[in-house]
Amino acid sequence: LRISTRAPTKTMSFGWHRSETLGALASVLSIWVVTGALVYLAAARIISNDYEIEARAMLATSAGAVGVNLVMAHILHQTPAGCGVGGAERLGGSRDPRDLPTQPGSASVRAAFVHVVGDLLQSLGVLAAATIIYAKPQYKIADPISTLFFSVFVLGSTITILKDVLRVLMEGAPRGLEFDAVKATLLGVSGVQGTHDLHLWALTLGQPVVSAHVAIDASADPDSVLREATAQLWARFGVTCCTLQVERYQEEMG
């Protein structure tokens, strides 16, 4: 997150915003690697049945882990993610940001939150297994079984974040920003006769970007069209970063 706030340079003209997306991807992959290792070890224990469990140590460690993960989850849940709407005044919009379409928050914060929730689930599973083993030592198989069971939930919780991260990296349209809706908004601006080369993408999950060519009729004022189109994109979709090229409408464009 700290790297993503670095100022743009001549080489990195968009800044370092994508670093948080790469961080989220690394976090998800690390969850998969760790979970895969735990699944392997749990399966090996079930197959061999040659292991001993220290129930007291297991209880103390898992209880402490549950407490720590609860605190971390609360902190991350309270962290403001931001949605890239800081350019309202520049765009001339006055709409309350709370009325804008919901944008996903910081990818890194979401990935960290999922990571902590995954650890919390695993810790709860270990705590439950430790309680069973402490009361009934012969049921030590509860330990690897709980690991396998909660690993499924942990892996499943990362799918949505992984899809969002890949959408950003592949320059896909952000969730909540529909191509047809944006095109209709541009065509609804007074004086606009057509639009082409419309592209929707995002620097990060919370910073949607729009670029397009806007064709206007001969009587329309280019500056007025540009101001209105930009304001409409802000008001309807929360887009603060857009590049619109205004050009005169030609018959062949139809």
From TrEMBL:
Member of which family? Answer: Belongs to the cation diffusion facilitator (CDF) transporter (TC 2.A.4) family. SLC30A subfamily.
- Gene from which the chain derives: Slc30a3
Q: From which domain of life does this come?
A: Eukaryota
What Pfam families does this protein's entry cite? Answer: Cation_efflux, ZT_dimer
GO terms for biological process, alphabetical? response to zinc ion
**The organism of origin for this protein:** Ceuthmochares aereus
Q: What does this protein do?
A: Probable proton-coupled zinc ion antiporter mediating the import of zinc from cytoplasm into synaptic vesicles and participating to cellular zinc ion homeostasis in the brain.
Main location, first listed in the record: membrane
* Reactions catalysed according to its record: Zn(2+)(in) + 2 H(+)(out) = Zn(2+)(out) + 2 H(+)(in)
Instruction: Write down the membrane topology.
Output: Multi-pass membrane protein
Domain named Cation efflux protein transmembrane is located at 1-170
Write out the GO MF terms: antiporter activity; metal ion binding; zinc ion transmembrane transporter activity
Q: Does the keyword Membrane apply?
A: yes
Localization, per the record, is: Cytoplasmic vesicle, Secretory vesicle, Synaptic vesicle membrane; Late endosome membrane; Lysosome membrane; Synapse, Synaptosome
**What are the protein's UniProt keywords?**
Antiport, Cytoplasmic vesicle, Endosome, Ion transport, Lysosome, Membrane, Metal-binding, Synapse, Synaptosome, Transmembrane, Transmembrane helix, Transport, Zinc, Zinc transport
Q: Name one GO cellular component term.
A: synaptic vesicle membrane
Q: Where is the Cation efflux protein cytoplasmic domain?
A: 174-249
- Transmembrane stretches, start-end: 21-43, 112-135, 141-162
* Name assigned to this protein: Probable proton-coupled zinc antiporter SLC30A3
